[in-house]
């Protein structure tokens, strides 16, 4: 059963009670500052985690064109302890309707703490494969490129199929990814298969 990290009850407006903080003017830099802050907190407390999403792609050499939030992957059983660590640091932590993540705010930016990637629980093996990478001068575990691309592509479905967001990441990291492993892990699901067809036609793979 998914752990419940929601005690005490969250406020109605999760950003309203966050202490005022000075934000970088640039949104990309604001997201990086949030990633650095949360990553440093989790690392200091010894949590098993990895940076994920577009900030992870940037850390591996992708474009500094970040999406709307910062993503971290953790094991389901660690959700309550991670939530406590973030609350102790003064961050607001709350639970959205989805049951596969918790959310926080840092420097006014949304941070997703995810314990299910591509509809599968995050496991210790994936997190242990994470690579220690400098994220804008702060070193932290970052999902390995192959796991990162799998997490993006395997999540495609009829209801979520944002090829436009994943394509630049695939281009940037293509030489670092074990594409055959990603293809095997995605199986014969139609949306991932369509994305692989696009990558082949564009000579990305």
Describe the structure.
The chain is an alpha+beta fold and 205 residues long. It is 39% helix and 19% strand. The protein has eight helices and nine strands. It has helices spanning 27-44, 53-59, 79-88, 124-128, 145-153, 163-173, 179-186, 190-201; strands at residues 49-52, 70-74, 92-94, 101-106, 109-114, 116-117, 120-121, 131-135, 138-142. It has a five-stranded mixed β-sheet with strand order 1-2-5-4-3. A hairpin with a 2-residue loop joins strand 4 and strand 5. Helix 5 (145-153) runs antiparallel to helix 6 (163-173) and helix 5 (145-153) runs parallel beside helix 7. The longest helix has 18 residues, at 27-44. The relative contact order is 0.15.
**Segments where pLDDT lies below 50 for 5+ residues?**
8-21
Main sheet overview: 5 strands, mixed
For the termini, the CA-CA separation is 39 Å
Strand fraction: 15-25%
Average pLDDT metric = 88
Write the layout of secondary structure elements.
Layout: H1 27-44, E1 49-52, H2 53-59, E2 70-74, H3 79-88, E3 92-94, E4 101-106, E5 109-114, E6 116-117, E7 120-121, H4 124-128, E8 131-135, E9 138-142, H5 145-153, H6 163-173, H7 179-186, H8 190-201
Parallel strand pairs: 2-5
Antiparallel strand pairs: 1-2, 3-4, 4-5, 6-7, 8-9
Helix pairs in contact: 5-6, 5-7
Give me a quick take on this structure:
InterPro entries: NT_sf, NTP_transf_5. The chain has about 200 residues and is an alpha+beta fold. It has helices at about 25-45, 55-60, 80-90, 125-130, 145-155, 165-175, 180-185, 190-200, and strands spanning about 50, 70-75, 90-95, 100-105, 110-115, 115, 120, 130-135, 140.
